[in-house]
Design a protein that fits this description.
The protein has 148 residues and is of the alpha+beta class. It is built from six helices and seven strands.
């Protein structure tokens, strides 16, 4: 499957995607599309609240697709803001992500996808990835589609 198809499939599926971020920590993110821009909503038992951010850059690596978000200018997702997110998140998901143990509870409710190969990371870490092998053609194509 092409990288663009993988992204579109993840958006269409509408489930949360789980990433192991090391040190016995797991985060989940929901990939959504607002017009033609990609956005991620991220939760973790380590975060004080969910955050959302636009996807600033995409890289196609040998082992998957990495979506980079702005780690300095993300938005805190606050309880009173449901109207801003209701086209992406159900009321049930909203309740889960704003309470304790959101990752565990999303998994229990079968709201986490079994897909792998899509990851999120802060944009500031992109230099770590550039030095590794990545698919420049597919990377440039995806960034043209979603970030131009």
């Amino acid at each position: 499957m092409k990288a663009e198809e993988i992204i579109e499939s993840a958006v269409k599926e509408g489930k949360w995607i789980q990433n192991d971020i090391g040190g016995n920590r797991i985060q989940c993110f929901k990939l959504v599309k607002d017009e033609n821009k990609l956005m991620v909503i991220i939760i973790s038992d380590k975060l004080q609240c969910p955050i959302s951010s636009t996807v600033e850059k995409i890289m196609v690596m040998d082992k998957g697709i990495v979506l980079f978000y702005d780690g300095q200018y993300y938005e805190r997702v606050e309880e009173k803001e449901y109207n801003l997110y209701k086209k992406y998140i159900t009321e049930d998901e909203w309740t889960i992500i704003l309470n304790s143990h959101p990752v565990e509870n999303l998994i229990k409710k079968d709201l986490v996808s079994d897909r792998s190969g899509i990851y999120v990371d802060v944009h500031e870490s992109i230099e770590d990835y550039i030095s590794r092998k990545y698919n420049k053609k597919d990377t440039d194509e995806l960034n043209y589609i979603y970030n131009s």
